[in-house]
Protein: Transporter
Amino acid sequence: MIALCTLSVFTQNKKWTLEEAVAYAIENNISIKQSELEVDQAEIQKDDAIGRFLPSLNASGSLNSNTGANINPVTNSFENTTFTSFTTGFQSNLTLFDGLRNIRQFQRAKLDQIAAQYRLGQMKDDVSLFVANAYLQILFEKENLKIIQSQIQITEDQLERTNELVDAGVVPRGDLLEIKSTLASDEQRIVRAENQIRIALINLAQILLIKDYENFDIADAEYEVPLNTIMEKPVSEVVQAAKESRYEIKISEQNLDIAEKDLQIARGAYYPTLSAFAGYNTRWADNDFLGRDFITQLYENDGTFFGAQLQVPIFNGLGVRNNVKRNKLNIDLANYRKEQAELDLESNVYQAYTDAQGALKAYEAALAAEEAQQLAYDYSRERFEVGIINSFEFSQALSRFENAQSEVIRTKYDYIFKLKLLELYFGISLY
Structure:
């Protein structure tokens, strides 16, 4: 009971880091679990393919009650009487040659297993990126709240200063009312900002399948803008790295290999099938004229058999021919899909590269704008304190400065996310 309580407190007080959130999502996400089951299914299919190389072994047995004219299985003669008989045996079959289809099916199962693993890797990348985006959104909302809170502190300081100026007769009382109105608006904005944080937290909790929304939170950490080493590389190098590492291309290549293997399997149906068989059987009847007991009859009436069977396909309603043609078309489709996947990936990389460049420029421009608005705000504050401008003009300068700060935060996290996406294309994993 104490351990459970301790675990509950730990869960409530836990603040998730980005790495922990990504790791938890990879372990618990439903789509990833489905992909993992597909990998398990592919492993079973490979075991099935291995099993086709092994001989089969089956046992059979039957107990019959016969009345009238029936063949006695022991004497192999007709008897017009009532008797009970029992037969049992074992039979084994082994495929010796089937147009190499067993071998091709085993090779196909291995290809399908690799493709399932690639699909699992792609799903992990997609989920990781989704979690990272939701996580960065929370960080943005939290930093945005801090900006609003700092501006409220400035407004409260100016309210106190304006009170002094009004009492000294330097500024009219209307300026005091303007500052109070601005302060009330800022307090409303804090409520909205807090709601945005709560919504962003719930969104991430839902992605992680965590139901305790009230206690869910992330670690308070500031992410600095990373070095743009990826964008210092030519985009062609990023594209080439993506083609070598991205799962989309690997999956399309595997699907093409699978389609080619399916064609080989279909062509195998043109060839004869050679199989071997062997078996053992014995029998008993209760009207044995020699009076032998059950065990003795089974021992003395047993026999073995073995042989080989050859099946040569001659005509099957064009089924094999049409199946071969169908699989040839599937190869063409797989080739086109592979080409399309390469084109899509190249387009996505160029788009991600351009977006990251644009996001970096937007961030740098936002920093410059913030610096300019900081100077403008400082200048307006000095002029307001000596009564040169009124409270409305000062509030406008403060609002522009706050907007500039918020834009810096927005462009910062937008750039970080787009850089992460570009790094993912370059082969740098998020987990």
